[in-house]
Amino acid sequence: MTAVSAHPEGVRVQLDAGGHSIDAIQRAAYRLCDRLSVEVTSNGDNWSCLVTSVDGCGPDPIDVADFRVEVIDQVLRERIRDSTEQTRNMILSLAFSGLVDQAPE
Amino acid sequence: MIALRGRIAAQRIEGLDRDVWRIGDTTPSPDRAQMLRAGTIPVPGFGLFLVAHDAGILVNEPPGMSILLPIELSYVSTGDVIAITPDRTGVRVLWRTASPVNSVLLTEQCDNFCLMCSQPPRKVDDHWLLEQATELISMLDRDTSGLIFTGGEPTIFGSDFLELLSNCREQIPDAAIHVLTNGRRFSNQAFAEDYAAVAGRSVTAGIPIYGSEPSLHDFIVQADGAFNETVNGILNLAALGSPIELRVVLQKHTAPWIREIADFIARNLPFVDQVALMGLEMTGFARSNFNDVWIDPYDYADDLAEAARHLDSAGIPTAIYNHQLCLLDRSVWPLAVQSISDWKQEYEPICSGCEVREQCCGFFATGRRQVSAHIAPVMRTDPLEEAEPNLTIQEEFSYQTGASLVGLNSANGDIANPPLDDMQTTFVMITRKPESGDPE
Amino acid sequence: MTFHRLPAGRVVVANAAGEHVLLERSEFLELSEGRLEDLRLIRLLRSKHIIRDPADSLPVELLALKVRTRYAALAEFTKLHIFVVTLRCEHSCQYCQVSRRSSNREGYDMSEATAVAALDVAFRTPSSSLKIEFQGGEPLLNFELIQFIVQQAEQRALELDKDVSFVITTNLALLDDNVIRFCRTHDIGISTSLDGPRDIHNANRPRPGQNSWELAVEGIRRVQEELGHNSIAALMTTTEASLGRAVEIVDTYVELDLLDVFLRPISPYGLAIRSRSHLAYDVEAWLRFYSDGLSHILDLNRLGVPVVERYAAVILRKMLTNDESGYVDLRSPAGIGIAAIVYNYDGDVYASDEGRMLAEMADTTFRLGNLHEDQYEDFVLGEALLAPLDESFALSAPMCSECAFERYCGADPVYHHATTGDFLGRKPLSAFCQRNTGVFELLVERHHDDSFARGQFRKWASR
To answer: Would the pTM count as exceeding 0.90?
Structure first.
């Protein structure tokens, strides 16, 4: 759950800590660091993200929307990677299993 | 139709110590029987004399124990093997050298109860059939090329059946052996392993499958859990490298679902050595359950053709049995085989003008003759050319692979229409189409 | 079980092995709401291992068997080995990122030492068969090295009991008796470019005399005559000029007895990042191009001309059988390194041909090392290969992990890196995803609705 509110320096985006890890938020922030600067602080059960524009002209709503989508993307990536880790490792190690018999020349 | 069993007309066999007899030639032997026809001179030294119905010889005349054969069995001759029933009233012909393929009945007991069964199961202790079969094997020429074990369910005798197979491997080592079985006992891993060890690549299990999931198959064979056991049996045999033929009988309930059955086989059991898509033999339960099993093949011709082409495209050697050519879509004529045993094969009067009669399997002489409303002589001489306008290009494609080796004369003209026993060895030799390269 | 809604309302439902059924919307609702009643539908869903009786373990076993079968080929590892024997080329095709017009052999030709090092690495592959593809520039400009590599490879294959086959990708202009003879002796296949009718082909490949097309056709006919029709395949490069002309392009191929047509996507490499709308236009236009081409090909098949569309054949193999395809761009885990590897003229080793093209544009993300500095283990077990494989893995990706078409599709880390800077990309914005989804929808519907197409598709799937 998110809430977007205005702020003198930019836009504040609230993300509940239960549904969003700090890692995902930071990865998302990094992906957009050519356009946005995001300052993350803890606020009870939420992460509070202060979003400002890097050129100092107030964040473009499109960029803010991109940030929120990016956060979801990173959250999903993290969660699905975790839940499929076993399968992924099994299949990738199958792919490389033929190399075990390789004798170095 | 050639009879394979009959009543003994007259006999003098008190004290006869054996029931199974091979007919010898001119050299007498206590292990052999002599066939007496009009003018044949009985030779002392044979263990048994078989008198033809019209030989003009009474049963007490030959110099040894004798049986007077009924008219319908008097055709037997040198190399054939007969068996006297335990109650000594009847004679069965176990082996005919004139037949391209011989079937050996091992039992009438079965744990399936198929709606269209041509050999309805009986609850009877018929272990003696297995014993007579064992004796038969010991009398065959060592270079015997093949045979079919049928039932009932041959595996019902468990390790005794495996011992029979072991005798075969030893006494007729070159024989290609086909076992018609419901495959359920192979779901037991230990039994599958024992079977595979004995069978090697010489014995093929011919296993019926009547559905793509349990409900249809179990209904048709009237046994709960049959589908799962059969498929598990198939998987076990495949893992052990044991040859498998799947047989699908087209009847009222399976024909509408034949495309899905073919899809199931192509996707889940693509490793099988052959699939036979079979028409009904209207005898036994098929006859008594007529209304519940009969369907005119003309009505499912398109579905059958699609199913057959599907299997063929998947690289699975496919054959169509017991379907008259005039009822089959032309595209699958190359897959149709002369499948009806010579002793029970006939044609209809209307077939006399048909140009592909010699390649057509004809009709079953057994049971009720239920003939499609659409039987008609075919008047074109080269059906293959009509079906494939660009034959030279089509030849490159998987459609012709393998299947053309067991079908009609191809456009090459050099692949003859093999009878059933040849096909048993042929399908071991058919290879799947090799992988071609992928782009980039 | 995964599902995908088709534009007109029907729903594709798939199982873990990639088998699918196409349901009416009402049937899908019955399934998803757990209120199935139609006997035939229940029977169908049970047959396809989408639902099962809870007590029935056989469907699970069969699914496992099918999934294992599909993944089993992975352990064979690298089968396709691309040798870039020279960067020199005497053409100057508009879309080409890699060639150099230069007579400086040393600068742009692969040396024998590099070739030997590349062969050492290539034959370390666990794969029982290798396919060696000669690329360039124009590979025939370094024909002596091709001969050397072929002979070396055949010898090593014999020693290691492996199979090896060869393909030369060439514009055919330098095909002489010598080359033909060598190809015949060593059973070498030829791959060339044919973009379509004369005007399309020549517009892409300017040459003094504007006779690129005539030369290509002459070369194709010559190879067909002297090496056989099965020895040559042609690939098109699709540009915006090709769009709208699929039928003519297919007809050009058929007239030349080239019965394998690969309706390729427009390559994104070498182009600046596009705006979202421009991307969408391209995908829609390309899908119309593809659909027209495929329909025309099926019509030709109905007339008895056995043309095959190769992209469809690759996908259909994954859709209709338990086999995986060797096609590098539609594999998950991705085909980079695992399916194919590239040895560049200068000894650099790349995870794919597109990875090499990116390097020509100063992006060396997919450079795995250099033959003269690194060992085999550095190439195949290094981070440069493992990171994109791991990160692009489709079953771990948002959207892909729940996509009904996942088994037909692939992870393309090179494409997504080139267009988004990220090995995984974001699929809603990915032209790769949109394009492939369009093709899958087209094939699934055609397979379901058109029994003739279904029969042809089954043949194509097992080629």
So the answer is: no
> ∠B234-B157-B229 over CA atoms, to 5°?
25
Query: C424 and A77: CB-CB below 8 Å?
Result: yes
Q: Which residues of C touch B239 (CB under 8 A)?
A: none
What pLDDT sits at residue B297?
A: 94
Nearest partner of B104 among B89, B117, B93, judged by Cα? B93
Q: Which residues neighbour B117 within 8 Å (Cβ) at sequence distance 6 or greater?
A: B110, B284, B285, B286
Question: What does the alpha-carbon distance between residue C290 and residue C284 come to, in Å, rounded to a whole number?
Answer: 10
Q: What six digits make up the tokens of C98?
A: 């890699």
Task: Supply the angle between the helices C353-360 and C413-420 in degrees, to the nearest 10.
Answer: 30
Neighbouring CB atoms inside 10 A of A69's CB total 14
For the stretch B174-206, pLDDT in tens is 999 999 999 999 999 999 999 999 999 999 999
Name the minimum distance, in Å, from the CA of C277 to any CA of chain B. 30
Contacts of B268 in chain C (CB under 8 A): 62, 65-66
With a CB cutoff of 8 Å and minimum separation 6, the contacts of B431 are B402
Of B347, B324, B339, B295, give the one whose Cα is nearest residue B116: B295
Chain B residues within 8 A of C167 when measuring between CB atoms: 437
Separation of alpha carbons B378 and B361, rounded Å: 14
Element (H, E) at C309: strand C308-309
Q: Give pLDDT tens digits for C293-318.
A: 999 999 999 999 999 999 999 999 99
Beta bridge partners of A7: A10
- Summarize pLDDT for C58-80 with one digit per residue, the tens: 999 999 999 999 998 899 999 99
| Whole-complex ipTM | 0.93
Contact status, residue C299 vs residue C254, Cβ threshold 8 Å: no
Q: Which two tokens stand for residue B217?
A: 């198959």
Q: Per-residue pLDDT tens for A4-60?
A: 888 888 899 999 999 999 999 999 998 888 889 999 999 889 999 999 998 888 888
Q: Which tokens belong to B438?
A: 């992928």
Closest to C309 (Cα-Cα) out of C461, C133, C131: C461
